[in-house]
Specification:
about 190 residues, alpha+beta, Lipocalin, 3 helices, globular
């Protein structure tokens, strides 16, 4: 078991050293009412493009909905699991431009850009028409999966108190390394 945890810790550390600070899970904040709307996962694809997928809808009234207003291949697709942001090209660490973003509520597709804050804990996503100043922005917050969720995902015979402590230590180490990386980027 210690071998598995050591490998997991090394994997987290090596992953975070090559990952863009924008990658990870983020909580979207509704720009109209300020509520937490969804958890999205942002990843850089093998071809270097940044993509975003809606992982979970947080408001009970939205859960289970499909993209009824969406065009073409998005029409009537479940919103959870929907890749709604794509084509973003890296301009710098935490800076992405020239992408597209789908608003599942209206079905509209906009040009998009994304900027991660210096502390790495929030980002601004802007959807716009034509030029960037004709559009709207949302601030998203980094999603921190509770340690208990990580422990629950372990095999039943592994979720003892020693393992839970080790998982928490690995999580703290990864968070510290991510914070350190954020500060290094900010210093550049």
């Amino acid at each position: 078991m210690k071998k598995v945890l050591t490998m997991a810790a090394l994997g987290l550390m090596s992953f975070s050293s090559v990952a863009d600070i924008a990658e990870g899970r983020w909580v979207t904040i509704d720009d109209e009412d300020g509520s937490q709307a969804s958890v999205v996962e942002i990843k850089v694809s093998q071809d270097g493009e940044l993509k975003g997928t809606i992982v979970k809808l947080l408001r009970e009234k939205d859960q289970g909905k499909s993209c009824e207003e969406c065009p073409d291949e998005f029409h009537n697709q479940p919103i959870e699991g929907l890749t709604f942001m794509w084509g973003l090209e890296r301009e710098g660490e935490g800076e992405w431009r020239s992408g597209r973003i789908l608003d599942p509520k209206s079905g509209s597709i906009y040009k998009s850009k994304l900027d991660v804050a210096e502390d790495g804990q929030s980002l601004e996503v802007r959807g716009y028409i034509g030029v960037s100043w004709i559009g709207r922005s949302q601030q998203w917050l980094r999603y921190d999966e509770p340690v208990s969720a990580a422990v629950e995902s372990l095999p039943a015979d592994a979720a003892d108190s020693d393992t839970a402590a080790a998982v928490e230590a690995v999580s703290e180490a990864a968070a510290a390394q991510a914070e350190s990386a954020s500060k290094a980027v900010a210093a550049e």
